[in-house]
Amino acid sequence: MTADLFESVGDTRPSRGVMADGAVLLRGFAKPFEGELLPALRVIVKQAPFRHLITPGGHRMSVAMTNCGSAGWVSDRTGYRYDAIDPESKQPWPAMPPVLRMLAARAADDAGFNGFAPEACLINRYVPGAKLSLHQDRDELDFAAPIVSVSLGLPAIFLFGGAKRADKTARYRLEHGDVVVWGGPSRLFFHGVAPLADGEHPVLGRQRINLTFRKVR
Ligand code: SIN
Ligand code: FE2
């Protein structure tokens, strides 16, 4: 990523960069929400702890996951799906706190997608070495809505490609508070996360937390 990709839009607003048609990186967009966001996440994770899901192919994912909202993304030997019920607790996923809903809607709005109302927030936890292979988000019924992705804690290298798996991927360093929104022409673009480098984040310690908001239905 080069510095000239980013134009600063003023002293009081974070910088933004266009990654592709329909894809925007909003630097520091989540920072003003942090004070409410982190305590809300702690409550969710108490109710629905992180767990390592098994892929349909039988692999244990290195990223630990949980969800909040009326639908949660899950994977097991039978496939990927959205489920209103946490398969571990057999209870509905924790409700999506208003601060998360608002952050997602504002980021989408800023990226040009008005009225974003996600049902699902997938919460990913990366420890050093954890990674997410190149994939498309395609388990949703509604591809008209964008994906909103919030990064917290240790920095990660986000890989963002194109419509085809073989397309060249650009690498973006995502830091605490950065938000990526992709939709429209890039809604189904391949993306992933490189193995997390070791480090210690002043607020979140030795981990990265990613929130991925999706309109499922
Ligand atoms: C995802 O693609 O679900 C997560 C992306 C990220 O962790 O930045
Ligand atoms: Fe994804």
3D structure, described in words:
With 217 residues, the protein is mainly beta. The chain has one domain: Jelly Rolls (Sandwich). The chain has helices spanning 34-47, 98-110, and strands spanning 6-7, 16-20, 23-26, 64-69, 72-76, 79-83, 120-126, 132-135, 147-153, 156-160, 170-174, 179-182, 191-193, 208-214. The strands form three sheets. It has an eight-stranded antiparallel beta sheet, covered by helices on one side. It has a four-stranded antiparallel beta sheet with strand order 8-13-10-11, with no helix packed on it. A hairpin with a 2-residue loop joins β2 and β3 (23-26). The chain is globular and about 40 Å long. Fe (ii) ion binds at residues 135, 137, 191.
Strand order of the largest sheet: 1-2-3-12-9-14-7-4
Largest sheet: 8 strands, antiparallel
Strand content: 25-35%
Average pLDDT score: 94
Shape: globular
CATH-derived architecture: Sandwich
The hetero molecules present are: succinic acid, fe (ii) ion
Terminus-to-terminus distance: 34 Å
Q: Report the CATH superfamily.
A: Alpha-ketoglutarate-dependent dioxygenase AlkB-like
CATH class: Mainly Beta
Radius of gyration computed on alpha carbons: 16 Å
Low-confidence stretches: 1-13
Structural class: mainly beta
Q: How many H/I helices? A: 2
Written as H for each helix and E for each strand, in order along the chain, the element string is: EEEHEEEHEEEEEEEE
Number of strands: 14
- Which bin fits the share of residues in helices? 10-25%
